[in-house]
């Protein structure tokens, strides 16, 4: 399998895993058409009254920083009905995969703050860093941001398989008394 095929297959595996998690919880979930810029999966309640969407980012546990690739555009996506699912497929295809479900505003904040911090620090040889559209969502920002950062190792734990926050969005609106 060449690199393009591997990347495509990894992304599809993550999207289908998230679809499985949603369908098994009773949501109506469907893949968005290719090319939709801000989400991969559209979800509604069984009643069809509430809608939310998911952007899926998938990785194998093979990189050195344990993070996911992001872009500059992710700094501005802040919608209470859009969530990110950060899928870690593990080291091998037989490993148990995990999904971190994070609101888009939280992701935007973390990506924006961490990138600004990275830009403000000198490069390996003391040079000023050049800006780019590349960002990373990491499980631990302590090395970059220092020991006081709220995004040190463990900050993702509260989002691990946290589908309850989706349930709060996807519940039917309460009836208005007349």
What would your notes on this structure say?
The chain is an alpha+beta fold and 178 residues long. The protein has helices at residues 3-24, 104-120, 142-145, 164-170, and strands spanning 28-31, 41-44, 51-59, 68-71, 82-88, 98-103, 134-137. The longest helix has 22 residues, at 3-24. It is globular and about 55 Å long. The termini are far apart. 26% of the residues are buried. The model has no long low-confidence stretch (mean pLDDT 89).
Strand content: 15-25%
Task: Tell me roughly what share of residues is in helical segments.
Answer: 25-40%
What strand line-up does the widest sheet have? 1-2-3-5-6
Helix-strand category: alpha+beta
Based on the structure given, which CATH architecture is correct?
Answer: 3-Layer(aba) Sandwich
Largest sheet: 5 strands, mixed
- What is the N-to-C succession of helices and strands? HEEEEEEHEHH
**Number of helix segments?**
4
Q: Which stretches are poorly predicted, pLDDT < 50 over at least 5 residues?
A: none
Distance between the termini: 62 Å
Q: Tell me, what is the CATH class? A: Alpha Beta
Radius of gyration: 18 Å
Average pLDDT, rounded to a whole number, is 89
What is the CATH topology? Answer: Trna Endonuclease, Chain: A, domain 1
Q: How many separate domains?
A: 1
Shape annotation: globular
């Amino acid at each position: 399998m060449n690199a393009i095929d591997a990347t495509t297959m990894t992304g599809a595996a993550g999207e289908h895993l998230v679809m499985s998690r949603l369908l098994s919880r009773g949501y109506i979930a469907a893949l968005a058409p290719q090319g939709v810029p801000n989400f991969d999966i559209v979800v509604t309640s069984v009643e069809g009254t509430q809608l939310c969407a998911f952007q899926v980012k998938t990785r194998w546990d093979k990189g050195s920083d344990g993070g996911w690739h992001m872009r500059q555009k992710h700094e501005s996506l802040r919608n209470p009905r859009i969530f990110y699912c950060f899928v870690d497929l593990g080291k091998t295809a037989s490993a148990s995969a995990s999904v971190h479900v994070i609101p888009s505003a939280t992701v935007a904040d973390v990506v924006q703050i961490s990138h600004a911090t990275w830009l403000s620090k000198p490069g390996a040889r003391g040079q000023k860093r050049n800006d780019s559209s590349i960002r990373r969502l990491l499980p631990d920002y302590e090395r970059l941001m220092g020991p006081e950062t709220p995004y040190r190792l463990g900050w993702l734990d509260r989002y691990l398989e946290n589908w309850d926050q989706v349930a709060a969005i996807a519940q039917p609106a309460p009836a208005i008394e007349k």
